[in-house]
Amino acid sequence: MSGRLIGILGGGQLGRMLALAGYPLGMRFRFLDPAGDAPVRFLADHLVASYDDHLALAQFSAGLTVATYEFENVPVATARALEQHVPVFPPPQALDVAQDRLAEKRFFTQLNIPTAPFAPVEDRASLDAAVTHIGLPAILKTRRLGYDGKGQILIETHSDVDHAWNALGGQLLILEGFVSFARELSILAVRGQDGDIVCYPLVENVHRNGILHRSIVPAPGLTAEVNILAETYARRVLEALDYVGVLAIELFEVDAAGAEHAAPLLANEMAPRVHNSGHWTIEGAVTSQFENHLRAIAGLPLGQTSARGYVAMVNLIGRLPDVTMLLALPDTHLHLYDKAPRPGRKLGHVTVCAEDADHLLERLAVVERYVLASER
After folding, report:
1. Domains in the chain, start-ordered, CATH in brackets?
2. Is the pTM higher than 0.85?
3. Where are the beta strands (DSSP E) in the chain?
C-alpha cells in the first residue's frame, strides 16, 4: 500500500483532512491550488498554479497513482486534461453534472429522483414565463458557482421579480419552486472501483445565513421509508455516473404542508466530493468519509460506515471561540483549518460524541453557546 502518490486538485480544508486521513495508510500527497496560503501548504507538496496552467498540470500529474479533487468547481476541462495522464476519480462527468444546477436537476429527473419544480431562465421573458409556470414563492439561482447561500434570491411576490432580475440577470439562471420542508437531510455514500457501495447514516443539517451550522447523526426520528429512499437515490446516482469516491446528496424531507409532493424526500443538490456534513465521521464513524474516499479511489476495500454512538458537528465560522473552553468539554474534538478569520469563512469545526441522544444534546448545547457567542 505504501508508495501511493495521490494528487488533489484544491488545497482547502477538505484536502487537508484527506491528507491527514491518508498518511496512516502510507499514502503521500501532492496538491495543486492557486492560493499560496492554502490550508495544505505545510502538509504536503503544494504546487501553486492556476487550474488552467497546462505546464503546471503536467508537473502535477508526474508520478501520480491517482488524482481526485476537493471542491466541485474545479474546471471540468482541467479534470479531463488530467485524465489523459492519470486516473481521475470521481469521474469528470460528475463535475459536469454538479456544476450546473439545471443539468443537475435534469439528471435527478432522469433517474426518477424527485426535486422541487424548476425551469431554465435565460432572459427576462423566460423569467416571467417561469414564474407563471412554477408560481410563487420561488428562488432564482445562478446555474453555476453559487455556494453557501450565494447566488440566489427568494421571490415571494410579483413585486420582487424586478429586484431579483436586476441582481442576478445577465447570466444563465434557474428558477426553483420554494419547497415547504420539515428539515434538510444529507446522505453520504461511497462507491469503490469494484462497484461496492456503502452509505453513512442519514444526517440532519441546520443552516444559518445560508451556511451549514450544525449536523446531527443519526438524524432524529427517521422512518425506515426515508432511510431506504435516501440510500436508493444515492445508489442510482453512483451507478449512473460509474462513480468512485464519496458522494453527498442534500435532501429535503417534506412536511405536511408539502404533501402535494408524491415522495417524502426531494433532492436539492449533490456534491461529488467529501462534504461538510460528513465531518462528524472523523471521530464519530468506524471509518471517516476521508479515509473511505481514499480507499475508494485507490482501489482498496471500503471501510465500515456505522456511527459510534450519537454525534454532532458544529462549524466555526468567521471567528474562533475560546478553544481552551471547548477542549475542556467531555468527548469534544476540535479541528482548525489554519485559515485567517473573516466573516462567513469556515475556520474549523467541533465534533461532539455521546453514548445516547440526551447526553449529546446536553453537550451540544454547551458547545453551541460558546460558538454562537464568538460569532456575535
Report:
1. 5-88 (3.40.50.20), 117-177 (3.30.1490.20), 181-375 (3.30.470.20)
2. yes
3. 5-9, 28-32, 45-47, 66-69, 118-121, 138-142, 152-155, 173-177, 181-191, 197-199, 203-208, 211-217, 245-254, 265-271, 310-317, 332-336, 346-354
